Amino acid sequence: MRDHGGDIDKAASRFGRADWIDLSTGINRRPWPAAVFSPHALTALPTRADAARLCAAAAARFGCPQDQVLPLAGASAAIQLLPHVLPGRRAAVLSPTYNEHAASLRAAGWQVAEPSDPDALAGADLAVIVNPNNPDGREFTPARIAAIAATVGHLVVDESFADPRPDLSVAGARPDNAMVLRSFGKFWGLAGLRLGFAIAAPDLLARLAERAGPWAVSGPALEIGAQALADAAWIDDTVVWLSEAALHLDQIVAPHWPLVGGTHLFRLYDAPDAPVAHALLARAGIWSRVFPWHPRWIRLGIPGNREEFDRVAGAFTAAG
């Protein structure tokens, strides 16, 4: 099993408490206030009209043509399907990054390099960049993305954490040989809906849709997603909240563990011993994310309210 955040069952079994604050993911803990969905969304098979409404809302939000948007059961669904619809066998994933990209490519028989230098992506049949990157928040401008795209056969740009940073997105000005992935669950805080989007040329999306099969997105996800994507006031307020909350978290943590980087949805710190730091927070009921390939890095999502911030601060006070 590949390691991921969100494994709160593991936290409970190891530390034996129930009142967990799960900061092990980059999921917004102040979610969009989903209304009760219609009986149609729950009882009927999703229709083309349902999907079209969601695609229209996504296209308006991301600034791309509607026929270049494909809803899927999370960006992770696209990551699993893409190796089977793109040509070639030599891939390069800019690393370190979200581990599913390289893992899904290898599982499909691709040869995968994991360089840390973006110039080393050149010549790959398929290159993958997460922008901004998980877990360190590394950023690339649209101009840099376009320059990289010109050196590879196909480029996948995973923008799962880009909603608070539209200036980084290439969804609205996508290079011809690029596919953009967008998550819904992270920024809108509704990860359980399992909703995300692939943005690409219509012919490529058609192949991806064929792989995904009929009814790839649930009725409630189609309905709630369309409503949430159109809620401009909530989106604007949430971008401001997250930017301020991320800075507040840094004020609490960075004096103890220096900041490595991050995004509006998570922060990455350098602890002297990440497993020890992980356990320190766990004893206070705070679940964090550590990485088996780096002994010092620890990642925290953004607390969602004053009580959660107070518990994080209290954990450091208790530790002295």
TrEMBL record:
Its cofactor is pyridoxal 5'-phosphate. One of its GO terms (molecular function) is threonine-phosphate decarboxylase activity. InterPro entries: Aminotransferase_I/II_large, CobD, NHTrfase_class1_PyrdxlP-BS, PyrdxlP-dep_Trfase, PyrdxlP-dep_Trfase_major, PyrdxlP-dep_Trfase_small. It comes from the Bacteria. Its EC number is 4.1.1.81. Decarboxylates L-threonine-O-3-phosphate to yield (R)-1-amino-2-propanol O-2-phosphate, the precursor for the linkage between the nucleotide loop and the corrin ring in cobalamin. This is threonine-phosphate decarboxylase. It comes from Paracoccus simplex.
